[in-house]
Design goal:
two-stranded antiparallel ribbon; 18 helices; mainly alpha; binds tryptophan; 454 residues; globular
Amino acid sequence: MTQQREQWSSKLGFILAASGSAIGLGNIWKFPYIAGENGGAAFVFVYLICIAVIGLPVLVGEILMGRTTQRNPVGAFNRLSKGNPYWTALGGLGVVAGFVILSFYSVVAGWSLGYIVESMKGVFSTFTDASIANEHFGSLVGNPAWILGYHGLFFILTMVVVYLGVKDGIEKGSKIMMPILLFILLILVIRGLTLPGAEKGMDFLWNPDWTKISGESVLIALGHAFFTLSLGMGAMMTYGSYLSKKDNILNAATQVVFLDTLIAILAGIAIFTAVFATGQDPASGPGLIFQTLPVVFAKMPGGSIFAVLFFLLLTLAALTSAISLLEVVVAYFVDEKGWQRHKAVMTFGFATFLIGVPSALSFNLMSDFTIFGNTFFDAADYLASNILLPLGGFFIAIFVGWVWGIDKAIVELKNGAAEMIDGNPWLMTLWSIFLRFLSPILIFIVLLYKLGII
Ligand code: TRP
């Protein structure tokens, strides 16, 4: 508690770090395939509405809670609820969610790291059809040493950045990695668009198929809006806690949402133009990146270079997200327990790595070990994505809208944004309606649905 708390050196630093958190496996791996499976442009349209109506309002709420209290999620709920133990415990749930998400997120990020090496070795050039790529993927993840090695290596990278601190680690790291990420993605988009047959991919992505929009796809869009913006467990709250009162949160949050959406759509373009141009199956679901794309690279002129670039892109995106997850846990121990940052990073980085071991082994040694019929990896993913995050989002909306109170929140929000808010009174009316009514109701429906109650 005696240590001086760090702050971002500028608003740009915050925007890059927060977009780094938001832009991750969710954008590059998940968004393209769920858009592909759920009606292309029609899904993108529904997704954009979810982002605007729920994502942005809750994001503003989270960042604001962090900035107001200058604390991690536990400290933030504790102060704003005046010490109420239930709300404080809810902040604790966010810290736990950080552990759980990071433990399996880093397994997939480890695959991406391993695939950089595979593509540098030129392995993919022999992948003439999908069955070879599937087999290769199966043999890699089936090997405990391979999967644990890269899981561990990815953890070390994550820990190094967080160890260096808010300004010198997270902010500086994001300032280097985010522009590289955008640059690589633009190269891949241009490569995709200039392949013969690219227009079929654009057609797939942009031609709305409204018949594919069902209740289910709306729920998928809503759930993804949460995951992709890193909402519901206090990651954005923690990043917000390093913001100064002079910064305009409304503005910063809008830019983060814009960047996150832009990257997801660019990734969709890069991937589907290449998938269609090389005659691969766009609807291969979660296997799209690790099984379909290697074949795409084998068939594409210059494919091996683009393969290295692609997996580098994916790894960087995952890394800037993973650091935000670890930072939540670290901030809690630094703020509330008075730990030194270095000690917290070493202890909880290693602990989270260990929790991730059974997730990594779910693909090989522990594939028969199940919890309610799911492997450890699937169970951790399910618990976090389908239960902890929506629950967290629901309570954050309720808390800011009703418990802390929208009027007090608006007073705080005006720090750095007074002109914008006073000049456009409708902004706060909308925020209030979305946060107090629309978001909780819609999230509640999603939660019931995901739990199989409706
Ligand atoms: N938003 C990241 C992605 O799209 C994942 C992520 C990072 C996340 N931090 C989070 C998700 C916190 C939920 C909560 O891949």
